[in-house]
Structures are given as C-alpha cells and as structure tokens.
Amino acid sequence: MPNTLRLAAQVVRAGPHHSVDAEGRLRPRRGEKGPDVVYLGDVATTLIHGLQEAATLTMTRPPKFDEQRWELEVKTGDMTVRIHSRPYWGFGLVTRGYLNVIEFSGSEALRDRAVFDLAAALGRVPWEFSWPVAADRILRGLDLDRSSHAKAWKGAVQRGRDGLRDDIRAMEDRRETVAQRLHAWLDDVDDESTATLRQHRLMEADEDIEQARKALSEDHAPGVERALARAESALIEVDPLDDSPLAHDHDGAVPVLNTDDDLDVVDLT
Fold it and tell me: How many Cβ atoms from other residues are within 10 Å of residue 7's Cβ?
C-alpha cells in the first residue's frame, strides 16, 4: 500500500502494566495480575505516548497464554498505527526475544514524524536486534533484509527531522518579515515604551528560534515545537499589522527548553 510503512523494532523492556477490558480497550492495570493482563513493552508504550493526543486504542488481538503476543491498533487524526508483538527468538521466554512489527498508515509526513519521535524517545537504535539472524525471518515477511530495513528506518527518521527543520526555517522567514515591518513602523512611531517592548519581544523570538535549533540538534521534537510556539507568540506581539494587544508582563515566563528537557543524544544515522 503506497501510504503504508512497515518496520520492525526490538523490544527491550516489558511489564504487566496494562490490561484489556471486555470491549478490547487498553487500560492501566489495577489490582492483582489477572487473565486480561498485557505486556506492551517499551516500543509500544513509547509510541502510544507520542500519539496519545486524541488517540483511540483498540486491542484487535488480545493476548492469550502468551501475554506479550498481541495486536494493537492506534488511530489518531489522519493516521492509523497497527502494532504486532511477536516472539522471534527463544520461544519468547525472555523480553528481548520479542519484536514489534509496526504498520504506519497515513501521509508520508505523519508517518515520518511518528517514526522520528519513536526513535528519538526510545533513546536507542530500534532496528538493531538482539538476535539479528533470528529476526531475518520476520524481515523477510516484510519484504526486507537487514540492510533495507535499516535504510527504511533511517530514511523515515531523516525525513521527520527534515520536516522539523522546515518548520524552523518557516519561522525564521516569518521573523524576517515581521522584523522588516517593525523597523518601518519604528520610523513613524512616537510611543517609546511600546517600541521598546516590541524590540524586546523580537529578541525573545530570536532566542526561542535558537532554542528550537538546539532542540532539533538533540532530536528533541517536543522542545522544537514548544520553542516555535513561543516564538510565534512573540512575533504576533511584535508585528505592527497584528491587532493583538501586547502583553506587558513577561517577567514570570519560563524558558521553553531547559536542561531538564534534554534527552540523551542517540546517533540515529
């Protein structure tokens, strides 16, 4: 299918933290372990967390005796993600003997962004398997070998990164346009306090754009988005053509990205 991307990811950690209700909906597990328990694993939980906004989760194939063998569907906006958890080594007796086959259906931009977010949030290279030879059988079912599979992952990650870079460039272009209008406006304005505040907010927008660049260099997509949102808010106040009133109190503003937001840098190339 032209709008579908299928990839496999090594599972590293899993635990009995979720259960499936009678309607097949996934819920946090409460109480003692029961027959409805499911081991999602770090790949699925990370992916779901990244797609959680307005997402609908359905366990299309609940686990039976093997609590780590299941199929899950996640629908969010215009994209659907299907996750198939299956053992590929050692009869599934250890967590690392499992992998997830993930099927992304939607536009290329949505698929690539989801892949980028997943790889970055995992903090490891998901296409590297604990038992590569054993994983070859699964990859053949996807019409891939280890080389083409890694290339598919890397290509999606890079396109997702490029999409964020394009967002930053668009904000840089908007900043230049607003700055030109501001400078023309300053030549005619007599309100010194308003002029000073607009210039100050323009400098804040510059700082936020730089924070977005820093976040992108660390593959920290949420940091990029927060920084660009902050820059956009500042530019709205700077732009003389915008009717929005200037906010006069910025002393309590919290930096968009600080050291607590940083993630471990993982080489995804």
Answer: 23
DSSP string, the chain: -TTEEEEEEE-----S-EEE-TTS-EEE--SS--TTEE--HHHHHHHHHHT-TTEEEEEEE---SSTT-EEEEEEETTEEEEEEEEE-SGGG-SGGGEEEEEEEES-HHHHHHHHHHHHHHHTS-TT--SSHHHHHHHHHHTT--HHHHHHHHHHHHHHHHHHHHHHHHHHHHHHHHHHHHHHHHHTT---HHHHHHHHHHHHHHHHHHHHHHHHHHTT-HHHHHHHHHHHHHHHHHH-TT--PPPP---TTPPPSS-GGG--------
**CA 95 – CA 233 distance, rounded (Å):** 45
Tell me what pLDDT residue 25 has: 76
The residues of the chain scoring below 50 in pLDDT are 247-266
**Contact 85/68 with Cβ under 8 angstroms?**
yes
Mean pLDDT over the full length of the chain: 86
Domain count, the chain: 2
| pLDDT value of position 256 | 38
Please say which residue of 96, 117, 144 terminates a domain: 144
In sequence order, the 6+-apart residues with CB closer than 8 A to the CB of 176 are none
Range of the domain at 59: 4-144
Does residue 41 lie within any of the structural domains? yes
